Amino acid sequence: MPAIRSARGKKAPPDGFDDIEDTLLEFSNKMKDAENASHEGKKKHEMQWPIFQITHQRSRYIYDLYYEKEAIDKKLYDWLLKNGYADANLIAKWKKQGYEKLCCLRCIQTKETNFNSTCICRVPRQQLKEDQEIECVSCGCRGCSSGD
Amino acid sequence: MELPNKRQKSSHEQAESEFVSLDIDEGGADKYGYGEESSIPQGDISASTPRGPRAHFQRDARFDRRNAQDRPKSKHVLPGHEPWILVKTKFGRRFVHNTATKESFWHVPSDVWPAVKEFDAWEKAQTEKEANAKWAEEELKKMRDSSKAEEVNSKADAEERRGGRRRSESLQREDEEAMMAELAAEAEHAEEQDVKQVLKTVEPEAGEFGYDSEGSFEYVEVTDSEGEEHGEKEDQPVEADGDAEAEDEGPVEFGEDDIAYQLAAMGEDYGLDPGEYGEEPEEGWEEGAEGLAISDDDAANLFRDLLDDYRVSPFTPWDKLIADESETSIMHDDRYTILPNMKARKDAWDQWARDKAAQLKEERAKMEKKDPRIPYLAFLAEKATPKLYWPEFKRKYKREPEMNDRKLADKDREKLYRDHITRLKLPESTRKADLMTLLKTIPLRDLNNSTSLDSLPQQLLSHLHSISLPSNTRHKIIAQHISTLPPPPEAGDMSDEQRMEEDKKRAEKRKREDALAARQRQVDEERRRAEKEERFARRGLLEEERELRRAMEVGNRGLRAQLAGEGGTM
């Protein structure tokens, strides 16, 4: 049985955490709200969309700070990943060509779909019909192809 | 939202000012030329072709709305000019009507003018009396309510209120008794009620036309009340001799050109070029009229300035920044609109955030790091007591910021607390001695006779020994120690780098000396060993020599006995 760890003995977060703490707190508040939101009048899968969206936003925020703006250092970035503030797997996909805007990992999981294909949101807008509005089932994405 | 308020306010002001001016404006009527056709273009029409007010207005489509609504409200006989009467309308305008000839004039003919003036004076007097009466009544009531002692105060108050109501000067000077007498005397006037009513209904609306506070053009109507209004704006009694001036000041018909001119003037006030507002004329603007062209770089830099000015954190997400709709949002700044689209703005933001973050990092690296223990130790010195165990202490002060500082681990906090409590139980002499030792270890550069007690070096403050003594004792000891210290070293102005270099040099020198000493030792050792060996060798030689000598010494007993003896010894 693993040792039960209390918050007391936790190490202090690395330098620079103070700068982004407020924003992360806002994200976690939003997440809490989304978790506790009522399911009435929603489709079954629609319930989880906000969760995915907030996860995506938060991961994107940290990804931008580290890779685009270089505003936080590696130590803090690793700590954030380790503590679950960002999804490392999702970020790993963003670094690959063609996946720069990927909404969630489920949308590229071809094995889980009937025709072994990706989600509709991965289809470039050009190849869709005119005025075709989509909201993907897994995360409510309206299109995350890199060309859009 | 803004506009209606403004308008209402201005109309109100005008109504008030009109009230005042009724008192002042005695000769002003002449000056502002109610009958001066030359100054008022529209006046020509009405004066030359006598018509009823409504007929006149129907001629001009612009005034239709008002004409339809305006109605005569009250008529007043002008004593001495019998056929003429003065008619007031619902909207507060007035005109003279000749009952004999059935003629009406907006502009009072000069022969009737004195009568109208007289009427004005009378009306003014009535109004004043009315106001007086009101005030006196109030005053009376107050006197009844308040005691004699408070009377002086209430009088002063009333006077202030009177001022606020913009009563005339003469009124303010009048004393109470006179007013009460007046109140009694004038109660019978039936007409006074009439006049009061007229004034009340008329005045707020009279302010509606003419010029509003910004001087923009609205309605220009030539009526008597407007002339009055204009005189009032001057805010001083005007003499009848300034006729020429009056012509300039009178209301002017605005044409398209005037409006264009005014617009241009306003544009200049705002520092705009003609191309930046209004529609384009047929020939186009002259060169450079369209405003200075802003290059893309300038636009981006302006946007960056905007971000700097609003002290935006570079760690804010862009979505949050543009979702902000409060008053302080950057979106309400003009510079926000300089960049053409959202993409350009986002690019500028990204670049700015990256630069800003780098700059922040640099600044922080330069800044001196403060030991997190210092505030905690100060807190301990104040709050720690041997009566509380650590868990109790922690529970008691869990809300304090010093107890939640993330820079200092909980373990360290606990350790410091326990150590501190243990030290508090030591005899005072030991603690004093410890403090003195600590003070002596601090280099002269940090602690010298010019150090004040408020700016003690970190090295001292972050040490547990510095808080072991009660604060007054500690301060005494430290002050005493400081007073015995020499002034700061001369090289105090050296930078840290220089100091480090010097330290390095010193270390190298010491190293060299050490090496030299070690070599010396080695040489000595070698010499000693050589000497030793020499000694050994010499001794060996001596031994052999002795043996030889012994062997050579043959005694009386002969060689044989000698050899045998030797063999025996061997």
From TrEMBL, chain A:
Its main location: nucleus. GO terms for cellular component: spliceosomal complex. Keywords: Nucleus. One of its GO terms (biological process) is mRNA splicing, via spliceosome. It comes from the Eukaryota. It holds the Pfam family BUD31. It is found in: Nucleus. Belongs to the BUD31 (G10) family. This is G10 protein. The lineage of its organism: Eukaryota, Fungi, Dikarya, Ascomycota, Pezizomycotina. The gene is CWF14.
